[in-house]
Amino acid sequence: MAKLYQVANGLFTINFYNQLKSDHDKNSTSYGVPKARMQEFLSMVDSEPDLHAVSKMEISMFLGERLLRDTDAASMENSLEVRVPLVDHDVIEALFAIDQDRRFQPVREKPLLREMAMWDLPDYIFDRPKLGFELPLDRWCRQGLKGQVGTILTDAPLCESVGLQPAAVAALWDAYQREAAGLHWSRIWGIFVLLWWCKEYGITQS
Known about the structure:
Elements: H1 2-9, H2 14-20, E1 29-30, E2 33-34, H3 35-45, H4 50-77, H5 89-96, H6 100-104, H7 111-116, H8 137-142, H9 146-153, H10 156-161, H11 166-177, H12 185-201
Antiparallel strand pairs: 1-2
């Protein structure tokens, strides 16, 4: 399940990961994550029902390593303290003790949350599409920041210094500029931020 999760959620295919990494790093990761970390995930979801396994992966990787980290950084930048009671470890442990069908069915309706905490809210609060927002990063990459992004992604010595194959990075940037089908801005932005950060702070592979 951990490997399937990575295939579904990784930025790149396994084939492109192998093109992207230097020869030295080709055996250092498994499905886009360090092998030791992948082994932790495999152990974590071993023998878990499928939906519980996916939930554990989401909590550990997407929620724990991305959303909570970003929330923490943004709140500290503005001297705010953020509380997240629904991800308290006691709440999480109690959820995993519940049968997965009881916990997740009907799909996307959050039945336990509705029944236990929000039973008096009108149905339309739940029965509507998500109302998230997305920064205009695609427009930035193609317009306002295009020059800066292109300069970074075509800097062969910089790519080599952090263990990336310059030809693969340059091909990715070229395909993005040609608006290749299925090439989401996040694939460009992820590589750009990594390279920019390494250049800014003098980080190299050695």
